[in-house]
Write a structure and sequence with these properties.
heterodimer; A: Alpha-Beta Plaits; 2 domains; 10 strands; B: alpha+beta; 16 helices; 15 strands; binds iron/sulfur cluster
């Protein structure tokens, strides 16, 4: 026991000092549309991005007006790799949660897209003894476990989500928010709905990850795995496949700020 | 690798299964009109991979079940029924594996030949649990939603006092229909879906997919790509073995060690980031090669390996030194070697019960068998043995990454140009990979136009789930979480 204590003390503080830092240079974030014009050739119908996109997240039906749906994007990075004009670029910011499905659509007019959280004391770790703004979440997994593991990571000593007042609880009875990962295939519907029903109002629903938002790669099949909002009203969307732990924390704080 | 299909009769198959020391790689169908049996003989290397087709007579969709003689087939036959409506008649425990109440009684998603006239499924969609009768027996249902942040599944325990008499496992909650979707999406997008079968295993899935597609398209892969693929696969194994040991510490109550392992897993994921730009190494292995980002951190990997080797030492030593931890793991959840063989167990869990089988040494994929480390096995078959195998593999994986980096050949790595890729028509190919949980297999069949007609995935957990149900018998209910964790099973990989 003493040995363990000694070891832990020796490790020092692992927790990241900066909150919501941009992803490092070599890491692929989500793509985003900038205000740059599309290349002439692309406007004439030779654009590769939409064709390459594995989830049809890019809509080029209007020339020079690409619409990028982050709710479908799996962050494969193919579109930003081929874009000749810098219209689609890799966005390394981590405040990616949005409060509506529409806000996930990135266009040239609204490239930056407002984050659902504001820079305020909400996004700072709660001070000891200040419990009035907390959020208890119940996570229900309906997918491939990558998102679940990133939730696990957001609780590790590096990201330490709990210092922001967010706790993962084991029962829906005392949860403020239901966090759903995965595309909700038919087999999980009944269980998910009964979990939601067990929560007391007011209750929030967070769709975590591209599958939960739109079904992602799994949508469109006989298992009707097309996302949470087909069966429950969603308050917060966290795009990514899987979202980065910082994005997950951002989403939780966005949910916390909705709590009345 | 490409496999040639041989047509035989059911009697022939029975004879082959009875005589030879094959393990069953897959047992399924193409469209409902036949049975396909993929048999593997690891001692023969690539030559030991054989595919047999057994035609079903026109209008007949049943055959005498083989499960009683070959328990390895237990879940394969259930899955075959679920997906194709082929009835293994006389199957001792026939019930649905993937598709439960929400689906119609006679819906068989992968069947393409018509069902016999007036066919009606012999069983309904409800999962009928085996009932244990007797004084003092009670049932304990757990799931599908669990207390922690993990995938869903239902466990039904029949207990006497605190002792588990029987455990039945109902899965399928995560059935997304990926096998069907894989035949619907264009080839250029297929690898993304293949790796999302289970994203904690995304590298292994991407590799199995690439190996199968490359043999069908007759694409040669550069040595450099093969090495880089192996590095990615080993990084995935490293990160996940660290998670598993960390998870075990959490369940035992050694939170300090668990949090150290959580942090070190971050370092392993960071290695994925450096190599591929993605913590889960997504989109890295593509048919034809790898997608190495321009500003990758390949040159930094060696340093990270050294760092992890150093930093893992202390927490792992403390874990193995902890009397409480050892007592909770030793002689608990024992699975005998003979049973492990009978169920066809794979991966660290199989090796902990004496199964000397590591795909890296048996079948060629990525830079293996050349660069394969020695197989780690144990004989005790208890929780501790499973953890010991994992821990030893953490060290051997670090060494393997080092060796791969030291010998990394030069060369091209770019993936295939999908506009030029044509798959050979009417052919079969299989990718067999040692994922961190064991043997993962993607079997791909093309039709006469060279389109993917059947895409079958066999995840390692598919072989191992039954073993958990057997190992936990006569153990205490309080030991279940530990035992479960020690098998490290995937729900999504199984449920497809
Ligand atoms: S990064 Fe997203 S939008 Fe771009 S091609 Fe990939 S999935 Fe589509």
């Amino acid at each position: 026991m003493l040995e363990l204590l000694g070891y832990l003390l020796k490790q020092g503080v692992a927790t990241s000092r900066e909150n919501f830092p941009d992803l490092p240079e070599h890491v692929r974030g989500l793509p985003i549309v900038t205000d740059k014009d599309c290349a002439e050739t692309c406007n004439q119908g030779t654009a590769l991005c939409a064709d390459l996109c594995p989830t049809q997240a890019i809509d080029l039906s209007e020339a020079n007006k690409p619409k990028l749906d982050l709710g479908k994007c799996i962050a494969c990075g193919l579109c930003t790799d081929v874009c000749p004009s810098g219209t689609l670029v890799n966005d390394r910011r981590t405040r990616t949660a949005r409060a509506s499905r529409e806000a996930l659509i990135s266009t040239r007019e609204s490239p930056a897209q407002t984050a659902a959280t504001k820079d305020s004391k909400e996004t700072k770790p709660a001070k000891a003894g200040l419990f009035k703004r907390s959020l208890a979440v119940r996570v229900v997994s309906t997918g491939c476990s990558a998102c679940d593991m990133e939730i696990g990571a957001s609780l590790n000593p590096i990201f330490d989500m709990e210092r922001f007042g967010v706790t993962v609880v084991a029962s829906p009875r005392y949860a403020d928010a239901l966090v759903v990962t995965g595309p909700v295939p038919l087999g999980m519907r009944a269980a998910l709905l009964s979990c939601y029903e067990a929560m007391s109002s007011p209750r929030l629903v967070v769709a975590l990850g591209t599958c939960a938002i739109s079904g992602g790669l799994h949508g469109g099949g006989y298992s009707q795995a097309d996302g949470v909002d087909k069966i429950l009203p969603v308050d917060i969307y966290i795009p990514g496949c899987p979202p980065h732990p910082w994005s997950i924390i951002d989403g939780m704080l966005a949910a916390k700020s909705l709590k009345t | 690798m490409k496999v040639d299909k041989e047509s035989i009769s059911l009697a022939d198959l029975k004879e082959i299964l009875g005589k030879e020391t094959h393990r069953i790689g897959h047992f399924t169908s193409l469209d409902g009109g036949q049975l396909l049996a993929l048999l593997l003989d690891p001692s023969q290397g690539d030559k030991g991979v054989k595919l047999y087709e057994i035609a079903l007579e026109n209008g007949i969709n049943s055959y005498p079940s083989l499960t009683i003689k070959h328990p390895q087939l237990h879940w394969f036959e259930r899955a075959l029924f679920d997906m194709f409506g082929i009835i293994p008649s006389g199957h001792p425990r026939l019930k649905h594996l993937y598709l439960h109440e929400p689906y119609e009684r006679n819906f068989f998603p992968l069947r393409r030949v018509p069902l016999p006239e007036n066919f009606n499924s012999p069983i309904d969609r409800r999962f009928h649990f085996l009932e244990v009768k007797g004084e003092g027996i009670y049932e304990l249902p757990v799931g599908p939603i669990h207390a922690g942040v993990i995938e869903p599944g239902h466990f039904r325990f029949s207990c006497l006092g605190e002792t588990i008499i029987n455990l039945e496992i109902q899965l399928g909650y995560l059935h997304r229909g990926v096998e069907k979707r894989l035949t619907e999406v264009p080839l250029k997008h297929m690898h993304f879906l293949a790796e999302a079968v289970a994203s904690d295993t995304s590298t292994a899935n991407a590799l199995a997919h690439a190996e199968a597609i490359e043999s069908l398209a007759e694409i040669e892969v550069s040595e450099r790509s093969k090495y880089l693929r192996s590095i990615a696969l080993e990084i995935e194994r490293l990160a996940m073995h660290i998670v598993d040991v960390g998870g075990m510490s959490t369940d035992i109550g050694l939170l300090g060690i668990a949090s150290a392992m959580g942090r070190l897993r971050g370092t392993a994921l960071g290695m994925g980031d450096l190599l591929t730009g993605s913590r889960f190494l997504r989109g890295f292995i593509v048919p034809g090669g790898v997608r190495l980002p321009v500003n990758n951190g390949l040159f930094k990997l060696k340093g990270q390996v050294a760092r992890l080797r150093h930093e893992l030492k202390e927490p792992i030593a403390m874990f193995l030194d902890n009397q409480m931890a050892l007592e909770r793991m030793r002689e608990v959840g024992v699975l005998k070697a003979s049973l492990a063989k009978e169920f066809g167990m794979v991966g660290p869990a199989g090796r902990a019960s004496g199964q000397d089988y590591d795909v890296r040494r048996a079948f060629s994929h990525a830079a293996y068998p050349n660069m394969a480390p020695p197989t780690v096995t144990a004989r005790e078959g208890d929780i501790l043995a499973r953890e010991m195998v994992r821990i030893k593999e953490i060290w051997s994986t670090l060494d393997t990454i080092d060796r791969l980096l030291d010998n990394l050949p030069e060369g091209e790595t770019t993936g295939a140009d999908f506009s030029k890729v044509r798959l050979k028509p009417d052919s079969f190919a299989v990718g067999i990979v040692e994922a961190f949980r064991g043997e993962l297999l993607h079997l791909v069949a093309t039709d006469k136009e060279g389109k993917v007609a059947r895409y079958a995935v066999k995840h390692p957990s598919f072989n191992n789930w039954t073993a958990l149900a057997i190992a936990i018998r006569n153990n205490l209910i309080a030991d279940f979480p530990l035992c479960n964790k020690s098998f490290s099973l995937s729900y999504s990989g199984n449920d497809l």
